[in-house]
Design brief:
The chain contains 6 helices and 4 strands; from the N terminus they run E-H-E-H-H-E-E-H-H-H. The chain is of the alpha+beta class and about 140 residues long. A 4-stranded mixed β-sheet has the order 2-1-3-4, with helices on one face. The two termini are about 20 Å apart.
Length: about 140
Amino acid sequence: MTSGADGAFEVFYDGACPLCMREIRLLRGLDRRGRIRFSDIAAPGFDAQARAGVDYATLMARIHGRLEDGTLVTGVEVFRRLYGAVGFGPLVALTRLPGVAQLLELAYVWFAKNRLRLTGRCEDGTCAVPAAKAR
């Protein structure tokens, strides 16, 4: 498993998710200092266990990021780290306020559970996590 030894925060994102890609494109454009390393878990050849230390289904269930010391973070904390890295620190601070933090976490959990359906990626009437791409 690689760490963020270069000082960048690494985000593991689903490149097959249209809504997720919109967010990633925005962040890439804002990341002028190269503080974020983007890892597409839907890319052919991506090995979740080797790259992130968790399986593909785990990465698909919630957004994950890796701190410089190698620690994995998930959910809203990933977005805090991403937006902090591109200079939105004051906005990120607001997301830590009591009530706001809990509301954001609940909203993210709901989104994560419904992401495939919301982005039109259910197959055969089911919204199960797709199998990892062939290596």
